[in-house]
UniProtKB/TrEMBL annotation, chains A, B:
Keywords of this entry: Oxidoreductase
Keyword Oxidoreductase: yes
Gene3D superfamilies: 3.40.50.360
Species: Suicoccus acidiformans
Record GO terms (molecular function): electron transfer activity; FMN binding; NAD(P)H dehydrogenase (quinone) activity
InterPro entries tied to this protein: Flavodoxin_fold, Flavoprotein-like_sf, KefG/KefF
Protein name: Flavodoxin-like fold domain-containing protein
Span of domain Flavodoxin-like fold: 1-157
Cross-referenced Pfam families: Flavodoxin_2
Length: 228, 228
């Protein structure tokens, strides 16, 4: 699966959350990030034919942005307005996945009836759900990052891996799928990534094996629970 | 009450629904219509200070647009992003009313669970509800015009007056308020508006009086019902 991330931010360079997310996926060969504002500034208005050709080459599309006035920045709507085709042409784009990666300056509990925002993120972003429906795309769960700058270091690294999982698999919420994803990533760690001596490498390998066993045991327990 | 209509359409001149709406309010002294795209094209990017100064002069703000990809055209988000202030500056704008006049190419019943769009117009446009909440504005009921071009002539004239009522009073759904609005408009019809001979004028005046009586009787009946 190839993923296209369309990043909508007026100035990506000054956004700490967007810079962090970019650093989290820069080594992934199947992931392409496009800075929409940067492209517009350097190459001029979006060209429908070229944008559609690029879109065709990907299986998963991700709109990534900081929520501003409860919506994406205008540059994303500009892209939608210029690029997306209606009617029979739309059918050529069917079968993809659509994900949203949304950073908010206020904490998650405000997005609820009675909260400061008063509406859920699902409601505020429902136009993208209808868009996915129109194009026959699978609408993925929204990846919500609330108050990034207040996160502790450990939470940021957890976020980094959940975000990688979302971008590469479309899933970040299932603990089972996330565990599988982490094990695969750990198995791919070579001496090049982790230049440590033989003893520490044995310890690392033992940790990975142990984590695999814990993961397998949890999966079995979960299956038993399901059978109850 | 002074009303500012911010019209968001890439080409207002070619939109039959927008041209119809414009013609419906052009004689109203307390209503100002701004074609955002036209202003951007002729005067360049929105200037926050000037836009805020204009906004301050109005009590009711109306965003008017054709729904495109389940959202307003990007020009409106562009205006929001550039113009609206956060924090303490936002307090200077408190107490206004916010209305939305939204034209859709598909009929109203598709905006529902299980419908073609799958989401209600209230959900799709919920970012404006949260915006109104943020600025302490009264969020008016959405004025929804579905498939304007398929409307019969009579329906268009009904729409014209409901739209005028919405723009001038913020209300278009209450039959009582709409009746009051029509009576007031009929009472203001002079010989200049209706250049007819004395006999026809008598008939017209009799009709207006009759309509006032019917309206008053309905209001009394409604009050009785309320008391049951």
């Amino acid at each position: 699966m190839k993923t296209l991330i369309l990043l909508a931010h007026p100035e990506v360079d000054v956004s700490s959350s967007q810079q962090f997310l970019l650093s989290a996926v820069e080594d992934l060969a199947n992931v392409t990030v496009v800075d929409l504002q940067g492209q517009l500034t350097s190459q001029g208005p979006f060209q429908q034919a070229a944008e559609l050709e690029r879109l065709q080459a990907y299986d998963r599309l991700i709109f990534q942005f900081n929520l501003y006035w409860y919506q994406a920045p205008s540059i994303l709507k500009n892209w939608l307005d210029v690029v997306l085709p209606e009617g029979s042409e739309a059918k050529n784009l069917a079968g993809k996945e659509l994900g949203l990666v949304v950073s908010t300056g206020v904490s998650a509990h405000h997005f609820a009836s009675g909260g400061r925002v008063g509406r859920t993120l699902s409601e505020l972003l429902s136009p993208y759900e209808s868009l996915a429906r129109y194009f026959d795309w699978t609408y993925l769960p929204i990846f919500h990052i609330a108050q990034f700058s207040y996160l502790k270091e450990e939470a940021k690294y957890e976020l980094l891996w959940r975000y990688r999982a979302y971008v590469e698999t479309g899933n970040y919420q299932s603990e089972h799928a996330f565990g599988e994803y982490l094990i695969k990533a750990l198995q791919e760690v070579t001496a090049e990534h982790l230049p440590i001596n033989a003893t520490y490498r044995r310890i690392f390998e033992a940790f990975v094996m142990h984590y695999e066993e814990v993961h397998a045991t949890n999966a079995e327990l979960y299956d038993l629970m399901e059978e109850w």
